[in-house]
Amino acid sequence: GENVEQHPSTLSVQEGDSAVIKCTYSDSASNYFPWYKQELGKGPQLIIDIRSNVGEKKDQRIAVTLNKTAKHFSLHITETQPEDSAVYFCAASSHLGDKIIFGKGTRLHILP
Amino acid sequence: DARVTQTPRDKVTEMGQEVTMRCQPILGHNTVFWYRQTMMQGLELLAYFRNRAPLDDSGMPKDRFSAEMPDATLATLKIQPSEPRDSAVYFCASAVGGEQYFGPGTRLTVT
What we know:
The complex is a heterodimer of chains A (112) and B (111).
Chain A: E1 4-7, E2 10-14, E3 19-25, E4 32-38, E5 45-51, E6 56-59, E7 62-67, E8 72-77, E9 86-92, E10 101-102, E11 106-111
Parallel strand pairs in A: 2-11
Antiparallel strand pairs in A: 1-3, 3-8, 4-5, 4-9, 6-7, 7-8, 9-10, 9-11
Chain B: E1 5-7, E2 10-13, E3 19-24, E4 31-38, E5 42-50, E6 53-56, E7 65-71, E8 74-79, E9 88-95, E10 101-102, E11 106-110
Parallel strand pairs in B: 2-11
Antiparallel strand pairs in B: 1-3, 3-8, 4-5, 4-9, 5-6, 7-8, 9-10, 9-11
C-alpha cells in the first residue's frame, strides 16, 4: 500500500522567512496530493492540493511542487507569519475522493 | 457555513465500557471517513463509507470497533469494550468527489 514520508518533523523559522516541508510517496499510482494544516484543538484543514498533471501550484504565500518521477512533493510558505504556526500534513491518494494516506506531520514554529 | 459536526467533543470512560462517537457529515457529501490521531501513530484511517456503504475498514480493529451509517446524516463509530490504548482523538471527515472536510474531533480518554 501507499506510504508517505514527511520531513522535517519539527521546523522553526524566523517570522518573514520561508519554510519548506518535503514529502515522498511510494505508490506510483498516486495522483492527488493535498496538504492540511492543523491548529491546536482543531481538525485538519485543507490548505492546498495538487494533481499529478500539474508540476506546481501557488495560492498567495503558499506553493506546492510535485516531481512525479522522483515521487517527491513539497510545500513552500513564503513571508511566514505567526498564524502560520501549526502542524502541517502532506498526503497522497490514487483517486480524488478516495482514501488518502497522511504523512506524520511537521510542527512549524514561527519565531518572533 | 457547512461543517462536519462530531459528538461528544470529549469523552472519559473506564476500561471495558462501550463508547459511541457520532458524526454528522456536510449535507450532500456522500463519502465519510473515520480517522484516529495519536502522537505515536499520527493520523490513521480506520474506515470509510460511500453512499452509506462501507468501502474499507481494514484500519479498524475488528474485534472491538464497529462503524456504521444508519442514514446519510449520521455516521457512528463504536468501541466495545474500550481499552486504555484506544485513547486518542477520533476525527470524522466528509467529502463529495473531492476534498475532505474534517470535524473538530472527539478526544477519548480510557482509564
